[in-house]
Amino acid sequence: MERSLRNVLVVSFGFLLLFTAYGGLQSLQSSLYSEEGLGVTALSSLYGGVLLSSTCLPPLLIKKFGCKWTIVLSMCCYVAFSLGNFYASWYTLIPTSIVLGLGAAPLWSAQCTYLTIMGNTQAEKVGKVGRDVVNQYFGIFFLIFQSSGVWGNLISSLVFGQTPTQEAIPEEQLLSCGASDCLMATASTNSTQRPSQTLIYTLLGIYTGSGVLAVLLVAVFLKPIKDAQQKDDGEKKLPFWFTLLSTFRLLRDKRLRLLVLLPVYSGFEQAFLAGDYTRSYTTCALGIQFVGYVMICFSATNALCSLLYGRLSQHTGRIALYALGAVTHLSCSVALLLWRPDPRQLAVFFVFSGLWGVADAVWQTQNNVLYGVLFEKDKEAAFANYRLWEALGFTVAFGYSKFLCVSTKLYILLGVLSLAMVAYGTVEHLEAQSLARSAATEQKKPAKEAVMETAM
Q: pTM here?
């Protein structure tokens, strides 16, 4: 096995172990800690921390410690969140959520930077196009990473499946599920009853162990890597404030300003699935024991599509994939507005989560590749911007989760996605014009040289 692929696999399996724990916990927060909105408040605080760290931490930590040790340090923040859940209260869950948020932006920026550098380096060795190898590496990563949702939610479903069989959900409660949920109806204890504390501790012990294994795997087996650009910057010894403000300086690029809606929408749609679909559709109509199984369907389709898109993009281009993602999510949002959840339609709950995963795989793979290709010289700042705006989407979505009806949230998703696609189309148009000008310039050069040779 080539060395670059081995390192990609180490990063991928490290994230698999880490997010087996975090993904399972995130899916359960809104259902497990519903009292006074503690669960969604913790998630909102978490992404507030991501928002804060995205403004400055990724470029600083990556340049100071390198990609490998930035990943290791950030993973420790995730383990702290698992520990905070052992005694979930406002005084433990909120602080550890913020700590996780502070580590999330450097973690993802370092991972994206590492895979981009590794892909470009390997492409130079074998004589391939850099973006094709980078696309392939991101496809492999997201195939393995997205499967973490399968294992994390499978673990929670098996553990919580040991609770006694519950009675049928009353018709009155079903009337307030789905798009009709305005957080005003009192949910029946039948569907929202918390599992025993013993089962919760068992689950948290498994998740914490998985996180610790992730830290050890990356710390021991991942090879450090440096970009040629980073070496040049190191020789110039850029001032501290130059590095600190690099995230904001990149916003002077018109393309980046147009692209901010893509990560914002990514945050919105993931927050809707984790906070609203799991609570207002699945838990409300089926019970908390089904949350894990529904999220497994999402994660499985997401993982398989991530690998598929990594290969398809070489033939179809990214525009076709973005169109697929947009049409799928637009259709799902409209259908969720019209559908009334019913336990007798069990398969429908899985169809929606599966289709959501089909579209989410587009945003997860193609957004990262797009940012890496368009801003190759400023990868750390570009990926920090991506996490900054995605975190803003998460923070806003979880922030208004307690105050808006589900139907209103779906209308917001439809509006933001439509605007994001218009902005993305504008960027593709600008890139096409830029490539056309570059090609015209290259054609003129040989002609000028021929004229000069004739004159001589």
A: 0.74
